[in-house]
Design a protein that fits this description.
Order of helices and strands: HEEEEEEEEEEEEEEEEE
Radius of gyration: 19 Å
Strand order of the largest sheet: 1-4-7-3-9-12-15
Oligomer: single chain
Helix content: under 10%
Number of helices: 1
Distance between the termini: 65 Å
Number of strands: 17
Largest sheet: 7 strands, mixed
Shape: globular
Strand content: over 45%
Length: 188
Amino acid sequence: LLMSLTLLIGCSAGDAGFREKVYTADASQVQAIRIDVRDRKVEIEPSDSEDIAIIYCESSKEGYDLSVSDSTLVMAYRSDREWTDFIGSKTSEENRIIRLRIPQSALSSLSIATTNEDVTLPALTLTGSLSIDVNNGNISFEKLDVGSAIELKAKDGDVSGTIVGGYDDFTITTSVKKGESNLPEQMG
């Protein structure tokens, strides 16, 4: 009886206290963005303004530390959940989405790491590098134009999209454990 009651309480408290928040930063003060989260889907969208905006949901037990230091905007996942918070509950999908809106101005680099969710990017231009690391999720993009380096890692997921340029513009290293790739293993 006690176990059943605990399970029911856990199931009903999964999304208690989540609030949508918006963090904005002046794009002229930011050259790089680094997002390091768990169990969150990350969607990058073009911004209509000259500000960088991050739209996300957080509660008293799950949230993010956001800061700008040395021209780098950092978003890091923070959790104060106890083991009992994991019984029968999972944060709903709408509370697990992070929307990053960036203007078309020259952003140097972008780094994203997440688990159990996808990362989607629109047509995007970076003057430096792009790094995306997804564990148990997919990476999808279109017309990426990156200055120096692209590193895409997907464990138990797919990587799909197009990159501006040709094979001769990049040094390519591909490693596939399970699945298929249309890129050569080593080139350049």
